[in-house]
Amino acid sequence: QVQLEESGGGLVQPGGSLRLTCAASGRTGSIFTMGWFRQSPGKDREFVGAFTWDASSRVYADSVKGRFTLSKDGTSPTIYLQMDSLRVEDTAVYYCAASPFGARRVQELGTAAIDDWGQGTQVTVSS
């Protein structure tokens, strides 16, 4: 099993930036793709972005493309989500996720493709 721990959420004004961090531990050798989902009150958990561990494939939801950027640490199983030009509609709990599938397959299947979840971190965009 893989353990995922997120950090970096908080309150930010519209147009601001935040960076989320997700540190993986445990059976990290089973991870093929890591990424982020988010969930707002009353809504389903939705895909934000994902990339294969070797960074050969990287995909984003249309709603965040050009504003959010995925990256990873070169020496440890840690990934980052840089969120710029934040909007009120980006407000949600953000979850780190790990999957044995490729990044595009994660985007297609959504939560069904995920084996392991983090506990979530709240991002609030408000003036």
Structure description:
The N and C termini lie far apart (40 Å). Strand 7 (68-72) and strand 8 form a beta hairpin. This protein is mainly β and 127 residues long. The strands form two sheets. Strands 2, 4, 5, 6, 9, 10 and 11 form a seven-stranded mixed β-sheet that branches. The chain has one helix at 103-109; strands at residues 2-7, 10-12, 18-26, 33-39, 46-52, 58-60, 68-72, 78-83, 92-99, 116-117, 121-125. It is globular, with a radius of gyration of 13 Å. It is built from one helix and eleven strands. The longest helix is centred in the C-terminal third of the chain and has 7 residues, at 103-109.
Number of helices: 1
Low-confidence stretches: none
Q: N- to C-terminal separation?
A: 40 Å
Q: Taking Cα atoms only, what radius of gyration do you get, to the nearest Å?
A: 13 Å
Query: Shape from CA axes?
Result: globular
- Sketch the major β-sheet: 7 strands, mixed
In helices, the fraction of residues equals under 10%
Work out the strand percent: over 45%
Average per-residue pLDDT, rounded, comes to 94
Q: What's the total number of strands? A: 11
List the helices and strands and how they pair.
Elements: E1 2-7, E2 10-12, E3 18-26, E4 33-39, E5 46-52, E6 58-60, E7 68-72, E8 78-83, E9 92-99, H1 103-109, E10 116-117, E11 121-125
Parallel strand pairs: 2-11
Antiparallel strand pairs: 1-3, 3-8, 4-5, 4-9, 5-6, 7-8, 9-10, 9-11
Quick structural overview:
The protein is mainly beta.
From the structure above, extract its key features.
127 residues, mainly beta, seven-stranded mixed sheet, four-stranded antiparallel sheet, 11 strands, 6% helix, 48% strand
